[in-house]
């Protein structure tokens, strides 16, 4: 790429194609066809140019006008252009309605004073009525005026008379930006225009999104369903005689994006292969930002800005592949900011473990960190629905772009990292509907930019080193892309509950987080830190096969380490965190003896291990196995957990050999078959009676009594 960037090639303007402008979207054929239809169609006629926001509707309106002028040298057509959104600025809805009508009438040649007076009268009446019915729907205001005497009827007669003797063949009225105003207001405008201008010589060309009409009609027909679909469609058909869908599927998106990138010198002309690279660009765009020109222009401006920043730092991109990688990452960032945010936190979604031991890929634990199991819902029915959706997803196949320019067919969710992606996407409606696109894109991205092919038999190539270089380049490019991220540094896909603890990747980051917050000494010293590491290591040995199979997993947060049965809500059976003897504990020892307190002076730090109770007899089992009684946990105040406090490695080892952890894990596994309501009502399961103390002080009194017994019984 050139080291010099031309001054006039920074970014692209998000503006429609102006009159006689360049047709980047190749809309000329559509414009010519609609122009000829308008020229020869009888009137009145309303044409609806349909498409979502940013798909080029305004550009097509401008091109239709240009084409009519080009084909019609006699100038016997009148063009009236109305921007509904501009009229709505600083106006009440009812004023917007009649400002549009007034603007149309003012631009019809030959409009007499009587028509203008009628129009002004309507505007005043609408404003007065709207003020008198403050808060009423605009559709109600419009309906009141439409049914009133000597208003619309007289205006329509005067307009009809003017048009019949007008020195032009047709008045073509272009209404744009209806989809930028409140949907019910847009529907009211459509109805009013239909009532006033359903006249000879009038042709309306409306830039409209059908979804806006649907939203605007909900107050009339309730939520759209199969039962009332006819009413929705009948209204649309009554207003619009010729619907025309923006041909976005026919856009030459690869050529369009290639041209824009060359325009800003991101790629030099002839640097991209006409067929292979254009096909790759199309694959990226279609699976991320889609074929919406507005989103594409935003992407080009991102590339332009980063290009300037890189030049300022003397960090120009070294290769075409590096620039294509950045193009792909930014496409993902714009289309799916939540997924980009997840990747920022956990960038290596897929890893070839045969080539590196330094990284791990996405799995259920990573998904849990970002979703907190929201994908499984809060009931058995919602959980079953998700499981069925995931099972179906595992069987889905799709074509994925290969780096040799061909496509290959692969399953989208047969690997653990893809199933983690499915869980993450499932938590949000927009992501759920686009999960397959995200999976296709990430598979393409890994295969193209990160994978080291096994087919390469050249023994001189160090595949591990090449793989490490690929990862380094990816991480570097990801970091470069963060400057344009609106979600960079924000929370991940599923927002944790308010005041939810921070999730950590491992014990090392957990201890570092506490240190950074100046909290480490509130919970640990070096000895208790080592005890926790020892305990975690032994639990992983105890359930090694279950950990490998995903039956048991751990989560590390600011609240310590929890161990859970399967990826299920309410799956925790064990939790451990640190603490130290506080003044409150000293006060408890006063109820025992000063000598007893002195025994603990060299053991001020401890680990609290919270165990799920399998039954009400669990307290006795603990005392029999350990030689001392457990006590109720402070949180949650439900009686479901007991706490065992360990001061020494001997305490930890005795606890690990007691079989108590296995009992709690088995109990959690059994309880998963029943609802929490059944367990709490003691109709199913054998869990201890659950009681919630609304008064925290009362609960603390119970714990204090049990702690006194514990300190009497425990031996150091």
Give the secondary structure arrangement, pairings included:
Elements: H1 28-40, E1 45-50, H2 57-71, E2 77-83, H3 84-88, H4 93-106, H5 113-132, H6 138-146, H7 152-164, E3 170-176, H8 183-197, E4 202-208, H9 210-216, H10 218-221, H11 229-239, E5 242-245, H12 253-263, H13 276-286, H14 293-312, H15 320-335, H16 337-345, H17 364-371, H18 380-394, E6 397-401, E7 407-411, H19 416-426, H20 429-433, H21 435-450, H22 463-481, E8 503-504, H23 507-516, H24 520-523, H25 526-542, H26 544-549, E9 552-557, E10 560-565, E11 572-580, H27 583-590, H28 594-599, E12 605-612, H29 618-626, E13 631-632, E14 641-646, H30 649-657, H31 660-671, H32 676-680, H33 696-713
Parallel strand pairs: 1-4, 1-5, 2-3, 3-4
Antiparallel strand pairs: 6-7, 8-9, 9-10, 10-11, 11-12, 12-14, 13-14
